Amino acid sequence: MADGTLLSLRSLSVARGGIEVLSGLDLDVIPGEAVILRGPNGIGKTTLLRSMAGLQLARAGRVEVDAETLVYAGHADGVKPTLSVAENLTFWADVFGVKEIGPALTAFELEALAERPAGALSAGQRRRLGLARLLVTGRKLWLLDEPTVSLDTHAVGMFARAVEAHLAMGGAAVIATHIELGLAQARVVELSPFKAVLPDIDDFNEAFA
Amino acid sequence: MIALTLRDIRLAMRAGGGFGLGLAFFLIVVVLVPFGVGPRADLLAAIAPGILWLGALLACLLSLDRIFALDWEDGSLDLIATSPLPLETVVSAKALAHWLTTGVPLILAAPVLGLLLNLAPGAYGALIVSLLIGTPALSVIGTFGAALTVGLKRGGLLLSLLVLPLYMPTLIFGADMVRRSAMGIEGTVPMLMLVGITCGAIALLPFASAAVLRVNLR
Known about the structure:
By secondary structure, chain A is an alpha/beta fold. Chain A is 28% helix and 24% strand. Chain A folds into 2 domains: 1-69 and 140-209, Rossmann fold (3-Layer(aba) Sandwich), CATH 3.40.50.300; 77-136, no CATH class. Chain A is built from 6 helices and 8 strands, in the order βββαββαααβαββα. The relative contact order of chain A is 0.21. Chains A and B meet through strand 5 and helix 2 of A and helix 1 and helix 5 of B.
């Protein structure tokens, strides 16, 4: 891995449910860069992000990343409904060894909701809490899977500003999303060309070999 | 690690957390047994060590599938797995939280329930000590079973089948220790066996649990 590169993919192939979905993917992510992954449903964006995060093994090729630099945020927010917003964030801050949750609450306008149980939040508010978690991790590389689901345009703006601030501090982000975030530094990677071609099976017995 | 243990304890104490579940089950079993057995004080006294240990073990079993299932469903487990905490630490913290929320209340309730079963007066000390030594093993072994079955829908049945054989040595030596002191025989041997099982489980199983958790998350 070259100096300063946060993430390198080398001819990576990933599989979902035993079937190869993406293959031959090369990608480098450097500090200050946001990579937007685009592609139709089922192309393997989530699978790719999970492979980057080390939650899944690559089928072939390599993922070169320091596990101590990344933070992953998937479809599920990992929010505990019986804990308050502040308690949820404080837990993650403790896990990642960060002292202060104030800036994270402010960035996603959650101060007024801090004492409310997370179970009483709306879907969009809960997603904001899930995203605020990123700010209490202190990690450089954000791997985000559809981060703007159930956010309104105002909240999407909040998120875009948080990403911009993160990039300005030398961080980086890989974001799978279908919407335009309006990030100036964003590099769009279209995944369709890397779609894995399934091998032709012309013999019945071969299919079960 | 402390943050994770504290969070799990807090979650267990809040509404719907299942804190009283094991305790209530233990209470029900022990209260019902005298009715089922009939009014024979000598028979009750004879089976009391076994019933108390069995009740505690089943109560422990009841809450096992909550250890990882909830964190798996809401995605927390993925997030924890990518956090700075090693998975070995995570499973140890969760086993500790399970013991504190399930094992400790059982230990505290056991002497009171011993009265209902006409447990011999000399055996109360042995009952508390044996549960104190034995229940951590139940939590650690149970965490291993929960890690094996995480992600399976309705994995509770499989979990029970996997864990029950592993619980047997603890049950045998735990109940034997209480029985011996009830009969006035020295109970050092079963106690040492119990200590050995618990120490072995605490030392080795977190690595096994973390390994199966890694496989299951993939």
